[in-house]
Design brief:
globular; NADH Oxidase; four-stranded antiparallel beta sheet
Length: about 240
């Protein structure tokens, strides 16, 4: 095995800069109210746009919400959620109806770690509602991003989009900022169309919270298991 793969994250300083950046990016679910300069957001997007895309099609379309627009969107999203969580539907399927192994175990392990960190038990309906609401408040981050894609595009464009979103998260991390990528925002497509004028032919893929993380919060210090390279890779040499 490549010795670099065996090192723990505590050895981050021994990695090339880009590996350090990749491994130090973690999803954050609580942010400080420290403002983020809009010029910094533009710089991040200017770097992220160098993401590869099938035949350079660049399928991304972003809406950046700050200030009063952010207030408007988060208020409307929380209202919609409170009015009828069961009425909110994503614009594309998130998971299969019945999750199978090994994904089912990974999913439930993650959910239970997050619940423990947030101090919310599975049976605590009110607590769980409150935590979902925090998603729609961008976890208090001062910048919210909404990502849409022309709905006539195909699956390949989702791969391109993933590259773009990862670039945003890394460019943010390199500037001392943190992120939470949030597919849950797809549930709020009607609200986002009304508040931001997003046309029907754009599918709401995801959102993202962007800001300075509050690292005193337990949910921002979770230790997640990442499967070993050998578990997801076949090295074939003959
Ligand atoms: C496509 C995608 C969608 C995600 N959607 C959400 C979301 O809606 N809400 C959320 O809290 N986290 C979301 N996440 C974050 C994942 O839960 C997180 O990446 C995963 O648990 C691994 O944690 P890490 O990013 O710290 O390695 C999403 C991540 C990805 C890549």
């Amino acid at each position: 095995m490549n010795s670099a793969i065996q090192k723990g994250e505590s050895d981050l300083q021994n990695y090339p800069f880009i590996d350090e950046l990749i491994m130090s990016r973690r999803t954050k679910r609580g942010f400080l109210d420290t403002p983020v300069n809009i010029e910094t957001v533009k710089e991040i997007l200017s770097a992220a746009k160098y993401a590869p895309s099938s035949s350079n099609t660049q399928p991304w379309r972003c809406y950046v919400v700050t200030g009063a627009a952010r207030e408007r969107v988060t208020t409307a999203a929380v209202d919609a959620f409170r009015a009828g969580p069961e009425l909110l539907a994503p614009e594309y399927a998130f998971f299969p109806d019945k999750m199978h192994e090994p994904y089912a175990s990974r999913f439930t392990t993650f959910r239970s770690l997050l619940g423990d960190a947030q101090g919310v038990h599975r049976s605590d309906k009110v607590g769980r509602m409150r935590d979902v609401e925090r998603q729609f408040l961008f976890f208090d981050a001062p910048v919210g991003l909404i990502f849409t894609m022309d709905r006539r595009l195909e699956w390949a464009s989702f791969i391109c989009y993933g590259c773009f979103i990862q670039n945003i998260m890394l460019a943010a991390k390199g500037r001392g900022l943190d992120t939470c990528p949030q597919q849950i925002w797809s549930l709020q497509a009607p609200v986002l169309r009304a508040e931001l004028g997003i046309p029907q032919d754009e599918m709401v893929i995801a959102g993202m919270s962007l800001g300075y993380a509050d690292n005193s919060m337990a949910e921002n210090n979770m230790s997640l298991h990442k499967v070993q390279v050998e578990e997801f890779t076949s090295f074939i040499d003959a």
